[in-house]
Amino acid sequence: MQLDWLASPVALHLLWGIFRESGYPLAFSLRYRDYEYTGSMATKVQRPPTWAEVGIRNSNFRTTLRGLRFAMAWGLATAELGREPGSVEEYAETMEESRATAFRAQQAFREAFPTEVTPYRMNKTSGAQDRYDDLWKQLVEIGKRKRTDKAKLMIEAQPTMFLVGSTTAAA
Questions:
Q1: Residue 116: which residues within 8 A CB-CB, separation 6 or more?
Q2: Is the dihedral of CA 95, 98, 99, 105 positive or negative?
Q3: Beta-carbon-side half-sphere exposure of residue 96 (alpha carbons within 13 Å)
Q4: Among 17, 32, 58, 63, which has the minimal tally of Cβ within 10 Å of its Cβ?
Q5: Using CA atoms in the order 149, 154, 159, 162, what is the torsion angle rounded to 10 degrees?
Q6: DSSP helix/strand/coil, 92
Q7: How far apart, in Å, are the Cα atoms of 109 and each of 18, 56, 129, 138?
Q8: Which pLDDT value is given to residue 141?
Q9: 10-residue block means of pLDDT along the chain (171 residues)?
Q10: Distance CA 93, CA 90 (A)
């Protein structure tokens, strides 16, 4: 017997109303997604925004994705160099992108995340930088450092971009 309907917000509101009207003392609280049911009220729980929410709030969806892609590529460049790139020119050279493309990506990042100077803190706090380091070590172990391999590495690292976006934005 499936009881999926019990997990819906409407069902929770209805059940909460029944318990409240029954007259029994309610000595518990119930939490579902963004709402907490305590006493006789359902209140929305405040949570810190994710990096994706911050980016969309500051710009738009497309620019946020381009900014997160720049954060991913910056993390891969950091893994390759063993340190954070000193400039966008160094990043472009490391990632074998044109200088103009690198500056456009940086512009999208700065528009989506105006409080961040570089994506390093985003990558580090989300744990994505460790994943980028592991991916780069795998590429070095294979012994191939051709452009096609770097493109494959970018494709393999794309899910990590969404990991960064879904991580709570640190203050």
A1: 109, 110, 122
A2: negative
A3: 10
A4: 17
A5: 170
A6: helix
A7: 49, 11, 17, 27
A8: 74
A9: 52 58 52 58 70 90 92 91 93 92 95 93 88 84 61 72 73 51
A10: 5
pLDDT at residue number 140: 76
| pTM, two decimal places | 0.68
Q: What is the dihedral of CA 34, 38, 40, 46, to 10 degrees?
A: -30
pLDDT at position 34: 60
If you search the block for the tokens 């029994």, which residue do you land on?
A: 24
Q: Which residue has the tokens 């961040």?
A: 116
Phi, then psi, of 150 in degrees rounded to 5: -70, -35
DSSP state of 44: E
3-class DSSP state of 30: strand
Structure token pair of residue 82? 């063993």
The CA distances from residue 72 to 10, 87, 105, 162, in Å, are: 39, 16, 11, 9
Q: E strand or H helix at 31, and its extent? A: strand 29-32
